[in-house]
Amino acid sequence: MIANQIPITPELVAQHGLKPDEYQRILDLIGREPTLTELGIFSAMWNEHCSYKSSRIHLKGLPTKAPWVIQGPGENAGVIDIGDGMAVVFKMESHNHPSFIEPYQGAATGCGGILRDVFTMGARPIAALNALRFGDPKHPRTRHLISGVVAGIGHYGNAFGVPTVGGQFGFHTRYDGNILVNAMAVGICRSDQIFYAAATGVGNPIVYLGSKTGRDGIHGATMASAEFDEGSEEKRPTVQVGDPFAEKLLLEACLELMASGSVIAIQDMGAAGLTCSAVEMGAKGDLGVELDLDSVPTREAAMSAYEMMLSESQERMLMVLDPAREEDAKAIFTKWGLDFAIVGYTTNDLKFRVKHGGEEMAVLPIKELGDEAPLYDRPWVPTPKAPVIAASDVPAPASLGKALLTLLGSPDLCSKRWVFEQYDHLILGNTVQRPGGDAAVVRIEDGPKGLAITCDVTPRYCENDPIEGGKQAVAEAWRNITAVGGRPLAITDNLNFGNPERPEIMGQFVGCLKGISEACVALDFPIVSGNVSLYNETQGRGILPTPTIGGVGVVDDVAKSATLAFKDAGEPIILIGETTGWLGASTYRAVIHQREDGAPPPVDLETERRNGNFVRGLIAHGKATAVHDLSDGGLAIALAEMAISGKIGALISALPEGIPAHAALFGEDQARYVLTTDDPEKVLSDAAAAGVPALCIGSTGGNALTLPDGESIPVSDLEHAHESWLPAYMSGALDVSEN
Amino acid sequence: MKSAVILFPGSNRERDAARALKAATGRESEIIWHGETALPDGTDIVVLPGGFSYGDYLRCGAIAARSPVMEAVRAHANRGGLVLGICNGFQILVESGLLPGALLRNSHLKFVCRMQHLKVERVGTPFTRDYRQGQVVEVAVAHGDGNYLADPETLARIEGEGLVAFRYCDASGNHLEGSPNGSMNAIAGVYSEKLNVLGMMPHPENLIDPLVGGTDGLGLFTSIAGGARAA
């Protein structure tokens, strides 16, 4: 067993991820040298992952309020009101560092953690999504990481019993050393039955529920708060091991316990385990907490206080129970075969006391553990403005059709069927729109109401212009929800960046937040929960700035939601929004010319709102038979996806005037949609009245997509190009070195 | 029509099964905890739902097959009562010996969730009276261990006695290139000798609604309900 009273050397402090001035802060705060357990507690509370010490100062100004927001950031998850007495609880969180070290368990426990965040608040999870970023397909680790992450997410979500309905999946060499695994969960509960973390009442029992505590995951959050170096492989023991079976039992037991009325407060044990959960429950309720570790269920013998306080063993919860209902609560947990132990009490002295073997191992001021965490206003420099690249300066391809097939089969734009078929996306019987559309649509119980859910960000835009990139991520989430007919309500953000101690990285962070903020305000789309993941950097090379936005909207009648598949032959195709042929930072330029430079397309939020509201209105009135938003790859990719999905071709006879054809087809101007209708006169006249640019560009029909230059590509060829790359790559059949 | 859905620790499609039964019968199912030793009086059909009972630890369905409630399920089946095992429920039925064969890891070693066509191989059973012989239906599959295997004698007997309930096929009912799991003879579901116990890997309970993929699965539940009404 590790002794509790050992000299605290500078080396020991450094091993705990604490800087010398941070250690001095501890000494000043408690007026003495900490015990080893106390040092561990400080390292758990004051690391970047738990304390947000580099980001807090910038997160304060984010728009988090709206009349429909019940709970904004600061709880386990955000909560919004969707009417009819129902609330949606959702959040996204990263598990980047552990997933790189051990992809299967890292991704699995990422799912487990976010599901727990949602049901901790009393909501039953009804959908999961994930945003994944991997390195260059040519990188020797990429296939291994993909297969592990996808299997891990599937393993956890499938067994837990939540449909995994959508997300993002992309590649870039800047993720070679740091992949991103951002997991989002969405749950439903009655709006008057939401559970919070703040403890109330002195002398109430604190109950430990769920799986036993082991030695896994010790220092996991500290590991996730540092850059990787060549020794990162050695950090595998800091990755937790997931047990979705235990989580499923925990879900059912917790919801049953909550329904019984015996829960006063509840907090899941996530990052920094017992330490973080106990401190938060006390601090939020202005109470002290006394824990007796002799009562903690352990799965290994002779665990020290230090190990128990820092373990990140999964599938565990902490609750404050109504003392009068203790026996009922215990019976529920015993029925589900889970551990139930009273491990402490709330106190009135605002101290966090930890006892073990009859000895006091830690006595710390509970409020200050959180409130007095270091706060940094790190120096930052704005990202230099990228030059605007004119369409005429980007060479046209020899064949538009061949360029389209190349883009459709490129790693970023190809079908992700290989991934989503490993996720159970149909369980619960409410998946109205499956993976592959603009947003997933999940019906709530027997309907008619449903949720539209999406994850979005375009990292190469954020790299070239963090402000426009941040705006675009929010706008695209808003647009994807709109494209299925949903009313966008709120977002969760997962801010993935490199090392914040570098001013240019901090500049990306500040810029993206500014853009996100502006878009949230302009689109009435507040942030209700989120997570910051910094230090996604290996040997001085950071990831692309990747602020993933998880958006949630409500669809009033899922029977009226729009899908992207062409429905019938002979329907006019209408392009909504203004096309300038913006090829700077476009997928076309990246894939065809291997150039990613240039200013990204600007986002005009007023236009975004006007065009989106117009399209949503068409859907609500049954005037649009198919709708797709335009994003990566532009108009040509959108048309191809609509054709593939509907197994119907199209003849494109007109494009916006005065723009080179390749720029009109592949440009990525924002605030645009393409739709089909059986009433084109009405759509065009309504658009004109609303001040929304609308242009009839052709009509559906036949077995091929025919471009304005006469080139005709069979839909079966489009589908083959779209579906082939990922399965071939993952089977090892593809020689990527020549790709 | 009285139905009981068994809840094992780790079951996760019990609500889906109960919903399909309600859609077909108009009545709520009773959810029965695996620790019970008796079924409710007058139970017409027992459903063992999909999921990951006991986390699929040891072998899929192996631990659940030894749950207290399974003795009551066995007695119900021996009396001629209807038993339907879906996905993990099918695995539990083969592990408990109520159905022949075994379900191994999918041949491609991955979990597979997708829409899948099935051919109705035998009509006129309590589960298929609302389908046509040879009808092709489209339902969901979602499993990691659905690779049906039986020894040669058993397989010959199942085929000879017409105990194959459903077979994976393409949209036209023909041989399917790229089986979802590598099952022998593309078997997706089998009956007991007396045709009162059916186990199947696909999920008809998720295909009962035109808004959520179609209604091809509903026939199985209306068949059960119709049979109970006729009896």
UniProtKB/TrEMBL annotation, chain A:
- Positions bound to substrate: S94, H95, N96, H97, R116, Q240, E312, S313, Q314, S533
Pfam families per the record?
AIRS, AIRS_C, FGAR-AT_linker
The UniProt record lists the Phosphoribosylformylglycinamidine synthase linker domain at: 15-53
Q: Where does ATP bind?
A: Y52, K91, D493, G530
Swiss-Prot/TrEMBL keywords = ATP-binding, Cytoplasm, Ligase, Magnesium, Metal-binding, Nucleotide-binding, Purine biosynthesis
What pathway, per the record?
Purine metabolism; IMP biosynthesis via de novo pathway; 5-amino-1-(5-phospho-D-ribosyl)imidazole from N(2)-formyl-N(1)-(5-phospho-D-ribosyl)glycinamide: step 1/2
Q: Which domain of life is it from?
A: Bacteria
Report residues binding Mg(2+) 1.
Answer: E93, N531
Task: Name the Enzyme Commission number(s) assigned to this protein.
Answer: 6.3.5.3
Q: Report the residue ranges that make up the PurM-like C-terminal domain in this protein.
A: 202-355, 569-700
| Binding-site residues, Mg(2+) 2 | D117, D268
Do you know which InterPro entries this protein is assigned to? PRibForGlyAmidine_synth_PurL (IPR010074), PurL_linker (IPR041609), PurM-like_C_dom (IPR010918), PurM-like_C_sf (IPR036676), PurM-like_N (IPR016188), PurM-like_N_sf (IPR036921)
Q: Which CDD domains match?
A: PurL_repeat1 (cd02203), PurL_repeat2 (cd02204)
* Active-site annotation: H49, H95 (proton acceptor)
Known catalysed reaction(s)? N(2)-formyl-N(1)-(5-phospho-beta-D-ribosyl)glycinamide + L-glutamine + ATP + H2O = 2-formamido-N(1)-(5-O-phospho-beta-D-ribosyl)acetamidine + L-glutamate + ADP + phosphate + H(+)
The main location is: cytoplasm
Q: Which GO terms describe its molecular function?
A: phosphoribosylformylglycinamidine synthase activity
In terms of NCBIfam families, this protein maps to: FGAM_synth_II, PRK01213.1
Q: Which family does it belong to?
A: Belongs to the FGAMS family.
Q: How does it assemble?
A: Monomer. Part of the FGAM synthase complex composed of 1 PurL, 1 PurQ and 2 PurS subunits.
What the protein does comes down to: Part of the phosphoribosylformylglycinamidine synthase complex involved in the purines biosynthetic pathway. Catalyzes the ATP-dependent conversion of formylglycinamide ribonucleotide (FGAR) and glutamine to yield formylglycinamidine ribonucleotide (FGAM) and glutamate. The FGAM synthase complex is composed of three subunits. PurQ produces an ammonia molecule by converting glutamine to glutamate. PurL transfers the ammonia molecule to FGAR to form FGAM in an ATP-dependent manner.
Supply the name of the protein: Phosphoribosylformylglycinamidine synthase subunit PurL
Q: Which organism is it from?
A: Flaviflagellibacter deserti
Which gene codes for it? purL
Automatic annotation (TrEMBL), chain B:
Single Gene Ontology MF annotation: phosphoribosylformylglycinamidine synthase activity
Where in the cell does this protein reside?
Cytoplasm
Q: Which InterPro entries match?
A: Class_I_gatase-like, PRibForGlyAmidine_synth_PurQ
Q: Write down the CDD domains for this protein, in alphabetical order.
A: GATase1_FGAR_AT (cd01740)
Pfam families from the UniProt entry:
GATase_5 (PF13507)
Q: Which organism does this record belong to?
A: Flaviflagellibacter deserti
Instruction: Report the catalytic activity.
Output: N(2)-formyl-N(1)-(5-phospho-beta-D-ribosyl)glycinamide + L-glutamine + ATP + H2O = 2-formamido-N(1)-(5-O-phospho-beta-D-ribosyl)acetamidine + L-glutamate + ADP + phosphate + H(+); L-glutamine + H2O = L-glutamate + NH4(+)
Q: Which gene encodes it?
A: purQ
EC annotation from Swiss-Prot or TrEMBL: 6.3.5.3, 3.5.1.2
Residue positions of the active site:
C87 (nucleophile), H203, E205
Quote the protein name from its UniProt record: Phosphoribosylformylglycinamidine synthase subunit PurQ
- The reply on keyword Thylakoid is no
Record SUPFAM superfamilies = Class I glutamine amidotransferase-like
Give the source lineage, highest ranks first: Bacteria, Pseudomonadati, Pseudomonadota, Alphaproteobacteria, Hyphomicrobiales
